[in-house]
Amino acid sequence: MFSDLRFALRQLYKQPGFTAVAVLTLALGIGACTAIFSVVNAVLLRPIDYPDSQRLMVLRETNLPQFPEFSIAPANYRDWQQQADAFAQLYAIRNASYNLTGDGDPVRLIAARVTTSYFEALAVKPLLGRFFSTEEDAPGKDKVVILTHGYWQRQFGGRASVLGEALRLNGESYAVVGVMPENFNRNSRAEIYTPMAFTDEDWQSRGGHYVAAGGRLKPGVTPAQAQSQMALIAERLATQYPDTNKGWGVKVIPQLEYLTRDLRTILFCLLGAVGALLLIACANVANLLLARATSRHREISIRSALGAQRWQVVRQLLTESLLLAFCGGLLGILAARFGLSALLALAPSDLPRAKEIGLDGGALVFTTLLIVLTGFGFGLVPALQSARLNLVGALKEGGRGGSDSSRHFARHSLVVTEIALALILLVGAGLLIRSFTRLQSVNPGFNAEDAVMVNFSIPTEKYPDGAKQFAFIDAVRKRFEALPGVKAVGATQVLPFSGSDYVLGFTINGRPPVAPSDTPSSNYFSVTPDYFKAMGIPLLRGRTFNEQDREGAARVAIISKSLADQYFPNEDPLGKQINITNGPETWREIVGVVGDIKAYGLDRDTAVQSYEPLAQVPFNFMSFVVRTSSQQGGFANALRREVYAVDKDQPVFRIESLESLVLASSARQRFAMTLFALFSGIALLLAAIGIYGVMSYSVSQRTGEFGIRMALGAQPRDLLRLVLGQGARLTALGIVAGLIGAIAAAQVVQSILFQTGARDPLTFTLISALLGVVAILACLFPALRATSVDPVVALRE
């Protein structure tokens, strides 16, 4: 073995050009595979870092077809706790935020409010202190907080004495009772945990769906069994509470599947793409080895004549292949290490488990297996071909090399395979590019240019009623409007594309009454008068809100065009009355119709929208939209100063442009498109190099034949046509095989395409034409060299 290894090192050292090209080609394929596998392994394959994490489930309510998944009503959650014996523990969790005040500027902390069963269900123990007690999970007794490990390190320097210290949250004192372990819930943005502390009103709520729920299955219970039991409980609740629960079901989803489901198809498609890229790289190196084998024909013949067995020759050649793969693998790991940084920079900001991505032991084991398989994969066929010798004939040839039809067939087959794989990747990239182009052309319904959003949450402890909350918001709005360059300022409780929504039911005055469970719903917005101007949402009929639409004035509402078209198809909605189910029944007069907006993303269906004046329905969480003529440096700081001027303890967070929200909504599609385009571009280059190498080698082997043809009267154009014809036949075979594969593979990416068919004829046609042109150009240079053959020199040779 060591003798073979030393000889292989000498052989590769004597041909540095061949070695460099082969190693770089393999490093490209192995590095790309390692990088993508590291992402897939961390995001999709590795279990979540909890004991028996396969037993952890996420529970979602459903109301088809409008809500295939939805948040949980607290009263339903309590019934599940009492009736679902498939779960060892059930827990509820709700996103929250707190304003931390004290020394320095106010800070907004992202929090999670959880029931006491949350930590028990996840089977975790605190690093310091304790978890919440049952008594603390109640209103008035819930002023305790648990810190995440990261926040504990940043804010308190990892001091163990933090236990018992007080944090000033929303103007009230909270005692620190615990610190979580370092790796706990790394995918959450939460910095602190507080008790859920459901009120009596919360426990009675079945119409309001605003918490998330999950649980741990009992040993031996399968997800399917839990789903069956929860479906029966949902049916029972629908019978018991038809006004609120009719049509509502439950979906039980494994936690890892729920966490990663939006990216599973994209990541597996990318893994398939780099796998195809590696196959193309292997085909290129195999062709190099086949060409190199011709120059070693006499050497192998002499070795065989001196007694080397065929298996010994194959072993020697495979040793060289494995050595190339090993060198390519080492370089590929280095490339993957740096490539992962670029990959994560391209990845969407909400990529789950991003903190766990890296070149860990699993990725290195995968790369090691890949190196071995790659070495055998591209080395076996050339080794077997080289070991098939006609010993007498080979020695008689005097080292001039020879022509072997089986070797020609192998080289041509590899080129056809490269072209087919490249076509599959190019079609995938073409479909994604076409899909993304159509996605970017979608009108969101508002103008995101030159607009900035400013978010904050108003503590109810300091501003306990709607009048005080609105007074604060109104004061901030006026200060924003006075800033230089500001054209319009609007505010709403939730912004489109922000990842949050607010869905409320509505009824129309004069229409037959319907059961609460059948009440239609809309995306609901409570806004200031200039919100539509600040957002660039067009007014189609009637008027927008004004300063007279205040508390105590007649209740008014504005609806979107889609709501008007759907519920007032043959009548003018202006002057009609609707009741929005966010309090006691009160009829609002419809005073305007505005354009539709995309509330959730460019690729999502348009939902109907309703609007009310913020002065009549205040909220304690708020987003401002500030439209400017130009954004000067320090504009974000100026916005903060104006808020602090109204309340020095009010933190401001997430100041960014509206355009960034729109861009973020298509980040996953952009990520997939960019990587597919990159991989397919490399595949196209490798395929072009492969066909160029084969045709160039073919021309060099047929120099004598071309000399005879020219001596017998063949013109240069005849030789050009001959060589190009051979290349065209290989290209055509590759394109046909690739089209068959692309039609099958395109069905896999169908779920991530937007308004683009998996068999889009324009994409298939253009990609086939592009690949054909590139392949013919790659054949052109060897063909031109064939026409320059000197017949006298060729015949003498």
Task: Report on this structure.
The chain is of the alpha+beta class. It is 51% helix and 17% strand. The chain has 24 helices and 22 strands. The strands form three sheets. The protein has a six-stranded mixed beta barrel. Strands 14-15-20-17-19-18 form a six-stranded mixed barrel. Strand 3 and strand 4 form a beta hairpin. Helix 9 (255-295) runs parallel beside helix 12 (361-387), helix 14 (405-440) packs across helix 22 (716-749) and helix 14 crosses helix 23. The longest helix is centred in the middle third of the chain and has 41 residues, at 255-295. The protein is elongated and about 105 Å long.
| Alpha-beta content class | alpha+beta
Largest sheet: 6 strands, mixed, barrel
Poorly predicted parts: 398-403
Main sheet: strand order? 3-4-9-6-8-7
Percentage of residues assigned to helices: 40-55%
Strand proportion = 15-25%
Q: What gross morphology would you assign?
A: elongated
As a whole number of angstroms, the C-alpha radius of gyration is: 34 Å
The termini sit apart by 40 Å
